[in-house]
Amino acid sequence: MVESDNLSLAWQNRWPAPAKLNLMLRIVGRREDGYHLLQTVFQFIDLCDWITFHQVTDNRVYLKQPISGVPESSDLTIRAANLLKAESGCQYGVCIEVEKNLPMGGGLGGGSSDAATTLLVLNKLWNINFSTEKLMQLGLQLGADVPVFIYGYAAWAEGVGERLERITVPEQWVVVIKPECHVNTKEIFSTKELTRDSKPITISCFIAGQDKNDCLDVVSNLYLPVKNALYELSCFASARLTGTGACVFAQFESNADAKKAYDVLSKNWQVYIAQGINKSPLLTELEKF
Question: What pTM, to 2 d.p., does this model score?
C-alpha cells in the first residue's frame, strides 16, 4: 500500500469508541418479523473504549488480545472488519487492539461503538472510501445501535433505531451506575408486560420533557440491582434507564453537582462520571486525517 504521511500517522493513532445514552425510549409498535418499532434519542458521552489498528503483512483480521470468554469470530470489531472486506473486496488485513473501558451488557453501546469505529477507521486506512450512508447500512447488519455511532451526532431515531435525524440537546454532566447484573435485551423485548403501543411523539414533545423509557418498569421488576440503583441515584437527580440497561443515569447542571453524587455512590456501586456530547469524538478525530 502506498501511503501518504497523513495516512501513516492515522495508522499510528488511537481511536475513540464513545458510549451512548438513550435519553428517551418509546416502543410504538412491532413489525411482522418481530422487531420492535421505536422512538429514541441518542446522545454520546465522553466515556470511551479506545481502538488501535496495526498494519500486518498478510490479509488476516485478528485481535491483539482476545476478550476472555468471547470467541474471536464473535467479536464485533472482527465481524465489522470482515464485513468491510467482504463488501469492498479489500485484500488487506489488520490486527485490532481494543482498550475496553465501557462495561459489557450495560446499555451504553460499547460493542456497537467498537464496531462503528472499526468500520469508519478501516474505511479510511484501507482506502475504501465508502460513504457514510453505505457504512450505516453495513453497520445495521451488525446491530441496531451501530448506525448512530457511524452517523456521529446526537440523534432522534425511529424505526428499529436506524432512521436518524440530528438533534441538539444540552450537553449536561451525567453520573452512570452499572449494577452488578447483565440485562438480557431479548428477554425484555419478549416479556408480555412490556408496553408496545406507546403513542408516537414529536421532537418538541421530548424537548418539553416527555422522556420516559418504556423498558424501565419491566427491567426494574425483573432485576433488583437495577431497581436499587435507580432508587439510590434518584436521591440526587431524576434517574433513568439507558436502553434496556443495566446502566442507569442522571443528568446534572454542573460537574460539581455530578461529583457530589459520584463521591457518595461510588462507595457502593460501579459508577462513572462523564459529560454528554452531541458530536462523536470519533468524527472529530477522523477530521484530522
Answer: 0.95
